Amino acid sequence: MTRDKTGTDETVATAERTVGVGPWPGGEKHWPRTTSGDIAAPYDPELLAHGDRRNVDDRYRYWRHDAIVADLDTHRHALHIAVENWEHDFNIGSIIRTANAFNVGAFHIVGKRRWNRRGAMVTDRYQHEHHHAHVSDLLDWARAHDYTVLAVDNMPGSVPLETFDLPRRALMVFGQEGPGLSEPALTGADAILHITQFGSTRSLNAGAAAAIAMHAWVRAHATITR
Q1: 101 contacts 79 by C-beta, under 8 angstroms
Q2: To the nearest 10°, the Cα dihedral for 32, 34, 35, 37?
Q3: How far apart are CA 47 and CA 204, in angstroms?
Q4: By three-state DSSP, how is residue 35 classified?
């Protein structure tokens, strides 16, 4: 609702929000080019010509997909995340999208190779994905690459995330909505962490819990430059 000049309320139709940007301003003759006249390295001529409607940060507008991935690779974080995929949980996509927002080193899918990508909003294409058929394979990978495995679940004996000294080379493991992490994941982890709650509900949504846990690592180890 808004008010007109007479002070009365009136309903105003909200225009559909335009996502992204249109074609490069000024047309082709103003496209970013090298001194030899070629299109500058990161830019995609299709996007320059037709606009960039992707869900990417403004600094990556009009960039080629491979150029964005290459740039992200120069400053990915040491944090890795893993999600157990036994029941095709729709929360997996949300977790992967958050992993992209924090530019984790990679995400790992344990169990079924196919997972519900809808909630990822295509952000998985900008990350590195590893698949492990069994939890034991994930744990072997972690040991081989010197990662501390942190299971995130509100189990008896777990310790508060808020007071835990998160290691830089951490692999956080998240379970399914409802059943949580499997027994092999819990027993194989170096520590089990829970997020302290103060209300009446027993647990958080899996996607929300993963976001909180990842942000805790960011607060401890990421360099904030923006």
Answers
A1: no
A2: -80
A3: 40
A4: coil
Q: In which residue are the tokens 């996607």 written?
A: 207
DSSP-derived 3-state class of residue 138? helix
CB 166 within 8 A of CB 217: yes
Classify each residue of 139-151 as buried b or exposed e, where b means 16 or more C-beta atoms within 10 Å of its C-beta: bebbeeeebebbb
Residue 226 — pLDDT band, cuts 50, 70, 90? low
Chain segment 141-180, per-residue pLDDT in tens: 999 999 999 999 999 999 999 999 999 999 999 998 888 9
Are 46 and 15 spatial neighbours (Cβ–Cβ below 8 Å)?
A: no
Question: Could you give phi then psi for residue 208, rounded to 5 degrees?
Answer: -65, -40
Q: Provide the CA 99 distance to its chain's centre, in angstroms.
A: 2
Question: Which uninterrupted H or E stretch holds 97?
Answer: helix 91-101
At residue 13, does pLDDT exceed 70?
no
CA distance linking residue 146 with residue 59, whole number of Å:
33
Worst-scoring range by mean pLDDT, 89-93, 154-158, 163-167, 210-214?
89-93
